[in-house]
Amino acid sequence: MIRRLVIGLAALAAAFAVPLPARAAPHDDPVVRTTAGWVRGQTTAEGRQFLGIPYAQPPVGDLRWKAPRPVEPWHGVRTARDFGDRCAQGSSWDPGYDEPTYTEDCLDLNVYVPEGSGRRPVMVWFHGGGLTAGAGQDIVPDAFARQTGTVVVTINYRLGAMGFLATAGLDKEARDGVSGNFGMLDQQAALRWVRADIGRFGGDPARVTIAGESAGGRSVCTQLASPTAKGLFRAGIIESGAYGDCAARTHDTAVAQGAAFAEKLGCGTLACLRGKSAAEILAAQAGFDWGPVAGGAFLPVQPATAFAQGAAARVPVLNGANTDEGRLFAFSSFDLTGNPLTAEQYPQVMRSAFGDRALRRYPLPAYASPTIAYATALGDTLFACPALRLDGVLAGRGPVYSYEFADRTSPPFASLRDLHTDFDFGATHVNEVQYLFKHFGLESPLNAEQRALARQMVQYWGSFVRDGVPRAAGQPAMPGRPGLVLSLKTGSEGGNTLSAAVGRDHQCDLWDGGGSG
């Protein structure tokens, strides 16, 4: 929902494709034998990479809206030098997403391996995109893999209606009687591929960390609560993924939405739904909430309940959000369309969205503009406070390390830079990704101080993937208890500092239900 909220408001398209790293000479190309067959990757300045490896059968025809099946073996050597197709999704303003994608044969993954020998820890990345958009190739983590000595895997998984449709008919096909989690099951199928095959690439299947941003972070939160994911990973990283407290749809709600979706398509049977083209499915899925479903074997109870009851994976978690998360969404709602929020409109917009108490807590004179004021409340309620609440509930089942990305000087991420706007995005949603990886395969225009912060963040994340504890040379230890947060900032902003005031700064007593106006 989060990224789709933004791109649905934008009638913009990027005019360039995601670049691939330079290819080495053919005789240097590495070849690895997987369980399903041989793959030939390529060597780059950063290490070795293998792109577009299928981890499951194409979910097409009768396999549409079924749990992923193991990939069928192939003969000969499969070329793994190019990304596979993205899963079916609409167009957006992100680089390389200027046209819709109607491909359903998309269950591929990419493996990035640093030079050297020995068993290396593994990070598996779930991309963001509101569970309706995005692909594994949205990040190129080759430099991260080299700098941290880790093997990194990025994956595609089914999105939107293709990944999360639940109907009474599909329930009858499901072993546990609950449909609608196909995209989440794809993620687990990729993790099983990692368990079976990553050792052949130099990775250690016993040291796997799952990680993701936005909807990818929400996916990590969901997988932590899933009994069927047990044993597939040993740690998790959640970046801006605690929105909605990681809540899944109830089964009844999901099936009701599925019935409305089928009616919109004019279908009364599964055969009719499976006979619709991907273009028809995409056209009909707008306006529905696509996400995980609680009540079956994959997710018996809501994640928050699983965490509170001790039924979730007892693994270390690195969890956090960005200081100005809401600015991206507020910009998309107002300034992007040429209609910045005005002082006259502000009281009614705030009351309508959040109530009178929020209007009193976020007085307009305290902010640079009405849009920024609204954005602050939006980010606090959607991201900052849910992240802190998640710290609290996760702490009962294992170590939780908390951060806040607070570099308000950070350049807007790639999709926003192309808009050529002077809007002050600050440390908004997604902006931390460019400090860790090549976002959309692009180098970010970081200055010297920001590059120093990026190196520190890579060390924190890399240390966590290797050892389960985030550390960086010469920097404060990331706290491992609720209420204390490591604020990540450049040196001119005060550097990385520990703070016990993040909850107060984001008005969490109001958003958690106990505060007064």
Question: What labels describe this entry?
Answer:
517 residues, alpha/beta, eleven-stranded mixed sheet, three-stranded mixed sheet, 32% helix, globular
Notes on the structure:
This protein is of the alpha/beta class. It is built from 18 helices and 16 strands. The chain has an eleven-stranded mixed sheet, with helices on both faces. It has a three-stranded mixed sheet with strand order 1-2-5, with no helix packed on it. A two-stranded antiparallel sheet has the order 8-14. The longest helix is centred in the last third of the chain and has 25 residues, at about 370-395. Residues about 1-25 have low confidence and may be disordered.
Can I get a quick summary?
By secondary structure, the chain is an alpha/beta fold.
